Write the structure tokens for this entry.
Amino acid sequence: MPKRGKPARRVLAQHTFEELEASLTELGKEYAAARAAGDAAGVRECRRLAIAAKVRARAVARRPGSAEDLRARKIEMAQWLLVWLEDPAIFPAWVEIRKRRW
């Protein structure tokens, strides 16, 4: 378990959907542990990491000259991050359903 207020990750991997899923699953565990421990700083740090990843995904999607397939991937990744931010506990079930669409 991470130290209070110090999740193990500093940047979420999001080069592929598999990386992002693994990152968000692990971050969800850290978030749940921080909440259970009453660690407000740890909860904030987990959310900060997810928000930063969402901002990066959107920035890549909006970057002039981004290939259309890259743009589409990053828009989808931003959606994954929004779902995680809304309710980390439902993310694992949601992502399984979402992956069936591909």
Summary: The mean pLDDT is 92. The chain has one domain: 17-100. Residues 40-62 form the longest helix (23 residues).
